[in-house]
Amino acid sequence: MNPLTKVSTLMTSELITVPAFTPIGEAKKLLDKHSIHHLPVVSPEGKLEGILSHADFLKVVEKYDASQTVSSIMSSHLAKLEPDDTVRTAANLFALNRFHALPVVEGEKLVGILTTLDLIRLMDAEKVDLSDY
């Protein structure tokens, strides 16, 4: 695996996003329907405002009411990547923190998301030379 690979080559750029005023129940349906664990929260202009993880939802699953919105439980102080950041930078951020997804932004606009699964797929796709063993 080349640790200098650009994040832009691995990130998911076709994203499912929600605005901050989305009801929590609707957000949960999107997570389940698309089998995803992270839902970026964006403004109408595409500016990243936060991220809702499956874990965030689980913290309130038994005590939320239908009037609550994503803004009440999303994480808003986020580590972020830029498209030209490297896989090494992403791996370091994942290793230093307890999250599994990093939004990728250009300026303040969300352009993608990189997950630990993306890094695993990169490693899995690497050709193995049996002589290395």
Automatic annotation (TrEMBL):
The keyword tRNA processing does not apply. The keyword RNA-binding does not apply. It comes from the Bacteria. PROSITE patterns: CBS. It holds the Pfam family CBS. Keywords: CBS domain. Residues 11-67, 74-130 form the CBS domain. This is Acetoin utilization protein AcuB. It comes from Neolewinella agarilytica.
